[in-house]
Amino acid sequence: MKKPPHMATQLFALTLPAVLAIAMGHARHEAAPAARVSVPADATLLARGEYVAKAADCAGCHTAPQGGAPYAGGLGMGSPFGTIKTSNITPDPRYGIGRYSFDDFDRAVRHGVAPGGKALYPAMPYPEFSKMSEEDLRALYAYLMNRVAPVAKPNEPADVAFPFNQRWTLFGWQLAFMPHGGFRSQASNDVEWTRGAYLVQSLGHCGACHTPRGWWYQELGYDESASRFLTGGINDHWSAANLTGDAGSGLGRFSETDIAHFLKTGHAGGNVAYGSMVEQIEDSTQYLSDDDLLAIAHYLKRLPPQQQSGTYAPTTQPARAATNGNRVPDSQSLGYVVFDILPFLKDWDSYGFKPLLARYLRWVLGPTP
Both ends of the chain: CA-CA distance in Å? Predict the structure, then answer.
């Protein structure tokens, strides 16, 4: 097995050029406004912004569990380096984004740099959001600034160990691993494919959970050109499935309708959502239009099988196959044993024992065959 690269050497190599570039760029960056920014917007723009917020699952990540105020932050996100708390993105001028200009918002969401030059941890999926269109970004900004209630809640510090608590090192991470060039369709003649690719790669940030990560917590691909893109990953202690066309571990045996229905309801084709995916469906994909859900499914179904694992043999009987762990003869299985002893239990009155267990088992299992 390959040993990970020496941490100190890699950090220095990755961060030195970025720190110099950032130091020169900060002097030109304008200071944030002194009061909450007024953002004019019409009903159409606000409706689009609300939809973008749902598609990007902003509330799902930026709302603390157990009754937290919407968008006020405080959700702990587990990582190999510690727990990172999501930030307050309400328009509160002191603790939230109330004093952000659009350019400030753009730098934070699409470039991972907050006002004041603070680099953001990639627990926020700004590598994916770097592909967000300016139209969607402006709509999201208008929605957050106008329709979300300001909450004066301070941001909680991240619980991250040294050296990962040194945010200046993140500039090197961004220089080395951030995708560039925005969203580019590889099938511009297929409108549905293009829309699905945009939702998966950008707003939906599916790769943040479903793409494996390297030694430096970077995703091993940001679009279908990478062989590890959407082949399954670990996020916040949950296993995220392979979303490529593999029939054993991926979506090969799902139809486009199955995938769209799953994203809408949390179940389809004999499969049920679990873990973080339940929250994602509750907070995000259930609100997407049927056309967008089908576009996502259309895109995913055209991803070739990658990192194949598992088996899918629909004509076999897995319940009786020894390869699936069932090595107990039917005569020794629990169901047969219970049915064999029921007549004995029903006659077991000589010791003064009322056969309550027998009646309970008959109620649960049905009449004795």
Answer: 57
Alpha carbon of residue 174 to chain centroid? 20
Say if residues 335 and 233 touch (Cβ distance below 8 Å). no
Give the residue from 47, 147, 43, 166 showing the smallest Cα distance to 89. 147
Residue 296 · residue 196 · CB < 8 Å = yes
Domain ranges within the chain, ordered by starting residue: 7-181, 183-327, 329-365
Q: Where are the alpha helices (DSSP H) in 74-206?
A: 102-111, 126-129, 134-147, 169-177, 191-198
Q: Are 68 and 75 in contact (CB under 8 A)?
A: yes
Three-class SS state of 38? coil
- pLDDT (tens digit per residue) in 298-317: 999 999 988 877 777 677 76
Is residue 9 predicted with pLDDT exceeding 50? Answer: no
Contact 226, 286 (CB under 8 A): no
How far CA 329 is from CA of 333, 341, 369, in Å, comes to 7, 17, 19
